[in-house]
Amino acid sequence: MLILGCQVSSAGKIYEAVDRAKSLGCNTMQIFARNPRQWRKSTLSKEDIELFKEKVKKEKINPVVVHIPYTLNLASIKQRFHKITIREFSQDLLEADKLGVQYLVTHPGSHKGGTEEKGLENIVQALKKILKGTKGVETKILIENTAGSGRWLGYKFSHQKFIFEELKQSPRIGLCLDTAHAWAAGYKIDEADGVEALLCEIDREVGLERLKVIHLNDTKDKLDSRRDKHADIGSGNIGTQGIACLINHPKLKHASFILETPKDGDEDDLRNLDIVRKLYNGE
Ligand SMILES: [Zn+2]
User: Which of 87, 98, 211, 231 could bond 218 through an S-S bridge, CB–CB 3.0 to 4.6 Å?
Assistant: First the structure.
């Protein structure tokens, strides 16, 4: 069975996101648990958390993925910012765990003002503190690959490899693959050979079993453009062939596919989800 969902809004009450995912026919979903462009202002009420968990169970949405806000930067070389990130990230992780969420996805961060090495070292230090301060939490942290624009780290999997090794292969850390980012970072995944090469590299660097979530997006930008702009499934350079290779790949049976395609309304999600379902060869 294809585990397929999309990014849904959690506007209003957080549990309303479950209804939105269900109405789109999703069996997994990704949400922001709070405003992604602000510092943390409030925590969720116990009642809202309970209702969320009840609905997730009833509607069989599994896994649930939360995306970390854009304001946080694990790689930041500014000390004050680094500290705020550790504090807010830890609070977000604890809240995700209370929500019963399986995965918390984060971008590795930007090393603006410093070197790649220093940025990677900062990510490791931040994650060490976060893991230490949240012992017993079951929600896993998934580190996403990036397009490599600006000073963003994580555009090649040797970066994730370094982080995982420094964290002694903690089972609390995994990988999220964004297909549009991979294309922009130079992975030619519009055909089977390119998909094989990408999966081989992931397996060699971090192990495919670490790959839990795939952000399934197309992009109109050129290969290796380092530009992060998502497009509708099949409308970009990855195309339906690349997408089909990924969703039907025998080594990705365990992964959850989540769309982050452009949308003005539900009809956009429904159209994209429908294209993916038609490309799927299984039951
Ligand atoms: Zn993504």
Answer: 231
Q: How many angstroms separate the alpha carbon of residue 181 from the centre of ligand 1? A: 7
Structure tokens at 244: 């089909």
Q: Is 25 left (phi over 0), alpha (psi -120 to 50) or beta?
A: left
Report how far ligand 1's centroid is from the alpha carbon of 177 (Å). 7
Centroid of ligand 1 to alpha carbon of 277 (angstroms) = 20
Q: How far apart are CA 167 and CA 145, in angstroms?
A: 18
Name the DSSP letter for residue 211: E
Inform me whether the pLDDT recorded for 107 exceeds 90: yes
pLDDT digits (tens, 9 = 90+) for 187-227: 999 999 999 999 999 999 999 999 999 999 999 999 999 99
Q: pLDDT at position 40, please? A: 87
Q: Model confidence over 18-32: pLDDT tens digits? A: 999 999 999 999 999
Distance 41 CA to ligand 1 centre (A): 24
In the predicted model, what is the mean pLDDT of the chain? 96
Give distance in angstroms: CA of 144 to centre of ligand 1: 7
Strands (E) in 73-125, as ranges, are 103-106
Every domain of the chain and the residues it spans: 4-279
How far is the centre of ligand 1, averaged over its atoms, from the C-alpha of 141 (Å)? Answer: 14
3-state secondary structure of 27: coil
CATH superfamily of 4-279: Divalent-metal-dependent TIM barrel enzymes (3.20.20.150)
Q: Decide: 90 and 134 in contact? Cβ < 8 Å.
A: yes
CA of 215 to the centre of ligand 1 (A): 5
Nearest to 93 by CA among 84, 82, 81, 104: 104
Ligand 1 centroid vs 179 CA: distance in angstroms?
8
| Ligand 1 centre distance from Cα of residue 243 (Å) | 15
The pTM for the full model equals: 0.96
Q: What is the pLDDT of residue 167?
A: 97
